[in-house]
Amino acid sequence: MGIKNLWTILAPFCDRKPLYELQGKTVAVDLSCWICEAQNIAEYQVQPRMYLRNLYFRTCYLLLMEVNPVFVLEGKAPELKYDTISARNAIQFKGAKPRTEKANTGKGRTRFNFVLQQCEQMLRYMGLACIVGKGEAESLCAYLNEDGLVDGCISQDSDCFAYGAYVVYRNFSISTQGAYAASGGAVDIYDIRKANESLKFGRNKIIAMALLVGCDYSEGVHGVGKDSVMKLFERVSDENILDLIRSWRDKKDLYDKYERQLNDKTHCSSCGHIGKVQSHTKSGCSFCKSTKGCDSTKYKEERQAIKNELTIRNKAIQDPNFPDESLINEFLRRKDNVKTLDLKWKQPDVVNFVKFASKFLQWEEYYSFEKILPILTRWQCKYPEKILRRSDLKGTVVPDKIKKARHPKGVPSYEIIWTDPTDSFKGLIPEDQLQEHNIEPEKLWSTVEPQDLVEAAYPDLAEAYRQSKIKPKKPSKRKKKTVDDLSQKMENISLSEPKPKKIRKQTKKQPTLEELLKPTEKVCEVVDQLDSGSNKLKINKVASASRDLIRQVLKPNFNTSFKENFIQGAGFNSSTPTKFSQKDFSFDPDMSGFGDESDLNVTDIVDDIVSRDDVPNKLKEVAREYLKNPPQASDFVDYKDEEDNNAALNTSNFFLDKGPDQEDLFEKTFRKTLGFESDENSSDTEEYDIDEDNLMGKKSDEPVKKDCEVPGNKPEETDALSSEEDSFCVKYVPLFERIRNK
Ligand SMILES: [Zn+2]
Ligand SMILES: [Zn+2]
């Protein structure tokens, strides 16, 4: 896509940078590029609406990274592009992305429009600006950049530069694999101003490239390559190149003269003065003021350059239409007035987003809500003034308190618990979903926001939190006491060795084990309270293990309740059928129903499930998997603490979330197709791997990763692919085949 060889020429001015380089920037996104990437994959019928999913997570990523995206959709394709488009569509897109009614029956065009509309709809629910230009999307992206409304364009199309863009972000990837894993993705940053500084290579020369070497609209001049064109560019400034090309036909006399001079045997081919080269070598040249030899330094190069220009010129003017002024106009003439555009991030529409996601992405409401809430709260933190001035707070949330300070990716942040005083989201998530997935209200309503944004948007909230840190509140003291009480009791029942000193201090007689095992109301209460997860207390490993043992003794009927939870967690006995995965059986200590994880009898229950006839096969499958690979103690303990460590890799708790309870159909199919086994230890950021890693097949094997490198990432690789490097076909489809054939 774009101008032939341009990426190769610009390679020396490209920096592959971690994505956080885009932080704080406003970027124009050429939406059809993103759709096409997913669309090519969709051709394999892996998962419909991959483009939506892809778009959603990439967009979230940008928003939570403090990048403001502006989405640009294409209007009408330029007339002169039709030929190339139809040819290209025929080969690459199989009609998936036709840009022209002429080339198609209209069926494909309708489909692509439908896709665009869906994307636009979703983005609008996220509050994002979607703008439609009068021409190609990349042209409007470029105008926005040229007018300083955006810092750059996310696009795969090098036409952007011809339309006036300064900075293009290419090969955008939010992959968490590879060299930039730690920074959460990478992008190639091309800044044309750098090329202009060192090569005097700017927009006009890029347009000249399009005319001579070729682009989407033009085949270029037959027999002219990028090297000779670059040589021609060396002796012309960017401002003058188009006039020079135009003069090729008009200044026939001048070029005829050059031609004659080059072939003139009466002039020395070394210095260019009158006389033969042999005589100059022997007795010198009077113009060069030499008595032996002549000065070849200037003319020889000049002669080569003129020869080069003449060759290109002679080939070019073979075409009576050269230079194609309509092509020059396409690039240089503005079609859109960007100054009137409203690019501000508007309030996300949570309710409609959740409805949309349930319909088009088949996400359950609770999951959609979990995903969209951080987008709303980030918007609120970023633009507090938009809410302050409003009397109606419908559709927004209000912070209740700061739960704790966090440092995801080293960014000082707060975990905030939000409330819904206007009942905007009441009833949005079906009650049975919350129960079925054991979703704690507090977790559902918490997000992580950068401290600086919180300080600015909710200064009182931040102040209250700081105060609470200085003077610990009384209630928390009281709670601490209960823990101490409990751990003391647990020490007493010899689950851990009591310290001799403590025993000596005790005035009371130490209770016997029998006495303690009596299921007193109080102990039950404390255990339940601890187990509910709603308190803020940290439970250490010992306490947790002891707790389970206590309960084991105190609640002889717990096995039944566990079994119920087990089946419920698997998505059975529920009114709405749920997709199904191993994740449902992750023994998350936060899930109160799974509090008995350390109990050894679990295996018996699972055995029982496997052996019974009246159990659905799906459940049996999972049960067998469980038996094969029972969770280890290390799977449960200190989950909360680890979360904070993991947080160093993420920008928000959005990324820490468990991800969809259902393993994505796309994910599953792809792993099977590509021969990757389902990764049980997949990180919580797996959500983000789906895009690139699955598209590219990157999964963890080093050799595969290398093979799957997007061409053009490394300058030395771009040359090999230079002629076709711009095509998505080359980039993605053979890659897929390659991996599949492995
Ligand atoms: Zn000479
Ligand atoms: Zn001379």
From TrEMBL:
InterPro entries, sorted: 5-3_exonuclease_C_sf, GEN_chromo, HhH2, PIN-like_dom_sf, XPG-I_dom, XPG/Rad2, XPG_DNA_repair_N
Keyword presence, Nuclease: yes
Q: Which UniProt keywords apply?
A: DNA damage, DNA repair, Endonuclease, Hydrolase, Magnesium, Metal-binding, Nuclease, Nucleus
User: XPG N-terminal domain: which residues?
Assistant: 1-95
Question: Where do the XPG-I domain residues begin and end?
Answer: 124-201
Q: Which cofactor does it need?
A: Mg(2+)
Biased segments, Basic and acidic residues type: 695-717
Region annotation Disordered: where it falls in the sequence: 468-491, 677-725
Matching Pfam families, A to Z? Chromo_2 (PF18704), XPG_I (PF00867), XPG_N (PF00752)
Give GO terms for biological process: DNA repair
| Biased segments, Acidic residues type | 677-694
Q: Does the keyword NADP apply?
A: no
Skewed-composition ranges (Basic residues): 468-481
State the Gene Ontology terms under molecular function. Answer: 5'-flap endonuclease activity; crossover junction DNA endonuclease activity; four-way junction DNA binding; metal ion binding
SUPFAM superfamilies in the record: 5' to 3' exonuclease, C-terminal subdomain, PIN domain-like
Task: State the PANTHER family in the record.
Answer: FLAP ENDONUCLEASE FAMILY MEMBER, FLAP ENDONUCLEASE GEN HOMOLOG 1
The entry sums up its family as follows: Belongs to the XPG/RAD2 endonuclease family. GEN subfamily.
Put simply, this protein is called: Flap endonuclease GEN
> What is the species listed in this Swiss-Prot or TrEMBL entry?
Rhynchophorus ferrugineus
